[in-house]
TrEMBL record:
It comes from Marivirga sericea. Its cofactor is pyridoxal 5'-phosphate. Belongs to the class-I pyridoxal-phosphate-dependent aminotransferase family. This is Methionine aminotransferase. Residues 28-377 form the Aminotransferase class I/classII large domain. InterPro entries: Aminotransferase_I/II_large, Kynurenine-oxoglutarate_AT, PyrdxlP-dep_Trfase, PyrdxlP-dep_Trfase_major, PyrdxlP-dep_Trfase_small.
Length: 382
């Protein structure tokens, strides 16, 4: 066999696949990978089927159906965002990961530095490395997973091209405040070469009366940012792999050059269905309350355990501190829970480039109450 020099020599199988496969092997309750176990809206499924029956089964336009881009623009405006040009500033993507990948490849050049706030979702670093960029990890404050803006500022050089942010934050559930937004704007004002890539896939899953402070709610931030969203996350249809990205025209023009050869276009009947489904604003505005009830149910069920519940203000993830439960490292303990106790989670060290272990596990509460109760009953006995 001809030898191949790996472009990603330090990358193996994603932790989400590893833990889900192990959960399946040991018949464990799977609270690891971030996918819901309850049904997608019957109306949305019917709309996809109807559009298949009508004959909407050929390629959609490369940037996405015009009517879906119009619906996306209306949704953004309806939730306090800026007015967008649907022809030049919105592109429908094959999920958020493709949007992130295409955005990084289009804007990061050889030798550019990209600041990644850790713990971070695992698709960011490989995309940067494939683009020839250099990853500059900056840790979020461990106490509350908020950004340390002075620490971020100290890492910026003339080579820094991008900062990747993700709020509501996976895995912690942290959110941005107005103070954070002001600090981010100040950094951009002082560093004109910088772009922001804002992963906002959990934008509609935010709790306790808080509001998602999207970069698209500020004219200045929007002018320097790429925002990425996911219908799969919002409408608990992760297997459909449909999302979108928003960026200023000059940036989007370059992103589309990559997107058109990365996937070209996205599943056509799903786009028609989404365009119609979004006409009812409650389809996305009502998501937070549903997940907030699940968060409260899981947190209440864990009250009698020795695990420490870390506050979660968004996403459908809950961090648990197991430092009072075991001296094992988080990977070892996560494997123990699957093999010996029958509950699967994600070790948070997998979200750090240096694999630092802070005795934290991530659990997905996007499950039915019976599933969450069974998992909590097991964990409370440890």
């Amino acid at each position: 066999m001809t030898a191949i020099q790996s472009k990603l020599p330090n990358v193996g199988t994603t932790i989400f696949t590893v833990m889900s496969q192990m959960a399946s092997e040991y018949n464990a309750i799977n609270l690891s990978q971030g996918f819901p176990d309850f049904p997608v809206s019957e109306k949305l499924i019917d709309l996809v089927y109807q559009n298949m029956q009508i004959g909407h089964n050929q390629y959609a336009p490369m940037p996405g159906l015009p009517q879906l881009r119009e619906a996306i623009a209306a949704k953004i405006k309806n939730t306090g965002g800026i007015k967008l040009n649907t022809e030049t500033e919105i592109t429908v993507s094959a999920g958020a990961t493709e949007a992130i990948f295409s955005s990084v490849l289009a804007t990061v050049n050889q030798g550019d530095e990209v600041i990644v706030l850790e713990p971070a979702y695992d698709c960011y670093i490989p995309a940067i490395e494939l683009a020839g960029g250099k990853v500059i990890p900056v840790g979020l404050n461990l106490a509350d997973f908020k950004p340390d803006w002075q620490k971020i500022q100290d890492k910026i050089t003339e080579k820094t091209r991008m900062i990747i942010i993700n709020f509501p934050h996976n895995p912690s559930g942290a959110i941005l405040t107005e103070t954070d937004v002001a600090a981010l704007k100040k950094i951009l004002e002082e560093n004109p070469q910088l772009l922001i890539l804002s992963d906002e896939v959990y934008e509609h899953i935010i709790f306790d009366g808080n509001t998602n402070l999207s970069v698209l709610k500020d004219e200045f931030l929007a002018s320097r940012s790429i925002a990425v969203s996911s219908f799969g996350k919002t409408f608990h249809a992760t297997g459909w792999k449909i999302g979108y990205m928003v960026a200023p025209e000059t940036i989007m023009k370059e992103i589309r050059k990559v997107h058109q050869y990365n996937c070209f276009s996205v599943h056509t009947p799903s786009q028609f269905a989404m365009a119609e489904y979004l006409q009812n604003e409650q389809t996305y505005l009502g998501v937070s309350s549903m997940y907030e009830r699940k968060r409260e149910f899981f947190q209440e069920a864990m009250q009698k355990s020795k695990f420490k519940v870390i506050p979660s203000y968004g996403t459908y993830f809950q961090l648990l501190d197991f430092s009072e439960v075991s001296d094992m490292d988080d990977m070892e303990f996560a494997q123990y829970l699957i093999k010996e106790k029958g509950v699967a989670s994600i070790p948070v060290s997998a979200f750090y480039s240096d694999r630092q272990d802070n005795k934290l596990l991530r659990f997905c509460f996007a499950k039915g109450e019976e599933t969450l109760q069974k998992a909590a009953d097991i964990l409370c006995k440890i």
